[in-house]
Amino acid sequence: MARSISYITGSQLLSLKRRPNIAIIDVRDDERSYDGHIAGSLHYASGNFYDKISNLVQDVKGKDTLVFHCVLSQVRGPSCARKFANYLEEVKEDTGIKDILILERGFSGWESSGRPVCHCTSVPCKGETGSA
Ligand SMILES: [Zn+2]
């Protein structure tokens, strides 16, 4: 059963994001450290994405929706989402993941629409604390 990967807009993500069963995966490389990030997002750099993929599977246990993004979600985001979908198919493990999505326009679109950006330096990101 091939998994389809679809796109989600920033405003859809903003409303989905309140649910506990969603994980946002930032696959930017070094940009994350100086540009900020979406609160609560996990960081799996595209550069060594495949090496860490089993950690990511562990990290998203219990989530059923994964949203991938990079800066523009044109190259790295979609390619990592696809790698992840293929990986799930290969391992045939029941992860409970139902949807693999890509954030349209990536972090850049998210930020330029004035959506909340977190600048914490904690790994993993502690999320919404401190934001209004
Ligand atoms: Zn943060």
TrEMBL record:
<dbReference type="InterPro" id="IPR036873">
    <property type="entry name" value="Rhodanese-like_dom_sf"/>
</dbReference>
<dbReference type="GO" id="GO:0005634">
    <property type="term" value="C:nucleus"/>
</dbReference>
<feature type="domain" description="Rhodanese">
    <location>
        <begin position="18"/>
        <end position="119"/>
    </location>
</feature>
<dbReference type="InterPro" id="IPR001763">
    <property type="entry name" value="Rhodanese-like_dom"/>
</dbReference>
<keyword id="KW-0560">Oxidoreductase</keyword>
<dbReference type="GO" id="GO:0005737">
    <property type="term" value="C:cytoplasm"/>
</dbReference>
<protein>
    <recommendedName>
        <fullName>arsenate reductase (glutathione/glutaredoxin)</fullName>
        <ecNumber>1.20.4.1</ecNumber>
    </recommendedName>
</protein>
<dbReference type="Pfam" id="PF00581">
    <property type="entry name" value="Rhodanese"/>
</dbReference>
<dbReference type="GO" id="GO:0008794">
    <property type="term" value="F:arsenate reductase (glutaredoxin) activity"/>
</dbReference>
<dbReference type="GO" id="GO:0004725">
    <property type="term" value="F:protein tyrosine phosphatase activity"/>
</dbReference>
